[in-house]
Structures are given as structure tokens and as C-alpha cells.
Amino acid sequence: MKAILICFALSLSFSTLAKEWKSIKVYQEETKNVKLLSSDWLKSDRLRNTEIWQKANRYNLTHNKPFEYLSIKQRRDFYRWLNANLKQKGHEVVWVSMASYISHKLRLVVTFPQSMFTNKALKKQANMGSETVFNASFTILKDLFLSEQILRNEAALHWDMSILFEEQYNWLATIFSQMDSRTIYKIERMAKGQFLYGLIVPKSIRFTREISNSDDRYNYAINILREYCKSLNE
After folding, report:
1. Span 120-155, pLDDT tens digits
2. From residue 80, how far is each of 19, 43, 212 by CA, in Å?
3. How large is the average pLDDT for residues 88-98?
4. What is the dihedral of CA 164, 170, 173, 178, to 10 degrees?
5. What total number of domains does the chain contain?
6. Is the pLDDT of residue 11 over 50?
7. Which of 49, 51, 48 is nearest to 36 (CA)?
8. pTM of the predicted model as reported, rounded to 2 decimal places
9. Where are the alpha helices (DSSP H) in 17-171?
10. Span 33-87, pLDDT tens digits
11. Range in 44-48, 195-199, 205-209 with the lowest mean pLDDT
12. For residue 33, how far is the Cα from the chain centroid?
């Protein structure tokens, strides 16, 4: 709980110093700098996966700067960049691909037209979950990124199991424990692909148990979602 509060407070302090800029002109007017800082990028850089975006990701990751990423879509694209880098090195871990996939689905929930069917509380929890997991996992991802040991087969599975345990039993468990029953019910409907959410949740990976239960979430993640994202990663 304390760690999450610290992450939230720090994120607020950084929110006025956007690291993604609409244009170089806006950046120069607001910062009085001529060139982008190492931690910064333009929106167009992220969308086009330019060298500036990639260098900013490397800099932020190696300097423990998760708070530079202020939205679900920015975190999603960071995960995509990192996943591509890890695959290129030969790693077979799947959690980063899973995080990218979930971020993509969360992004759909808070944007039109799906946002028409989600209330403010649900959008708030989606953003909080994204931010909490991203910030809490950053040093773990940094260690993996800088490691000379390439994780394959059982080693990759054990790494995924370890970070999934932290995610489901610590980072997200605290959030679920503070949610009201109505919001939990809506999240569970989404995960189960009920109502219009069936359009964004494939039938093969729809959740079938209790979303607020850490055991159920962990077992689903390691046995179903991991296998699905592993197939996407190949």
C-alpha cells in the first residue's frame, strides 16, 4: 500500500512535466530548450517508433524513470519496444508481451466507442492498474534488459512466474482490495467478455473465475493468457 501511494504521489509531481510532446515547437516554447532531453520524445516519434523514441526508452529504463510515461498508450508502446528488444536478444520471457496485450485492451476500454459503456470509476481503476504495474515492474525490467544472461525455456517460465506473482498478489491485490463491489463486477464482466466486451476479448482467453481473487487471476495469467501471448510472440 505504501509503495502504491508513493508511486501515485510521485506521478502527480511529474504530471506537469510531460515527456511526450505534441511538437518540437511546443516543446521549445514551454521548456526554452532547443533540443529534446534524453528522456523526452515527440508523439510522432512514439507513433513511428523512431530512433528518438527508442533512445528515450533506453535512457529512461536504465535510469529508472517510469514516471516519464503518463498514459496507457505510452506504456503500451514502451512494452512493445521492450518486447522487440528482448526477443532480438534471444529472451523467451512472455510477461512483457502480456503487459503489452493487456495495455492495448485497457486502452480500448477508455477510448471511444467502448468508453461510452464505462463509468469514471472504471476508467480510473484501469489507469491506476496500468500505472501501478508499470512503475512497480520497472526496475525488474531494467535488470532483465541489462542482464547478460539470456532467459529461455524453464528460466524464462520461472521469470514470468515470479513477476506474475508480484503483479497479482501484491501490486494488483492492493488495488482490488480498495475497489467497490460495483466496479469489481464491471471489471469481471469485461474480463469474461460479456456484453459488448466480447468484441475485444477473444473467446479462448475469457476469464471464467473470480476477478478479485489473486489465486484465480494468477492461475489464469500463467496457464491461459501466457500461452496465448506466447503464440503471438512467436
Report:
1. 888 889 999 999 999 999 999 999 999 999 999 999
2. 18, 15, 27
3. 98
4. -150
5. 1
6. no
7. 51
8. 0.90
9. 24-31, 43-48, 51-62, 72-89, 95-109, 120-146, 153-166
10. 999 999 999 999 999 999 999 999 999 999 999 999 999 999 999 999 999 999 9
11. 195-199
12. 30
**CA 86 to CA 189: how far, in whole Å?**
33
Alpha-carbon torsion 54, 59, 62, 66, what sign?
negative
Distance CA 86, CA 89 (A): 5
Does residue 113 sit within a domain? yes
Whether residue 71 is contained in a domain is answered as no
Residue 36 inside a domain? The answer is no
What does each C-alpha distance from 180 to 95, 126, 185, 187 come to in angstroms? 28, 14, 9, 11
Distance, CA of 154 to CA of 86 (rounded, Å): 16
Structural domain that includes position 109: 91-232
At 42, phi and psi to the nearest 5? Answer: -90, 155
Does 25 map to a domain?
no
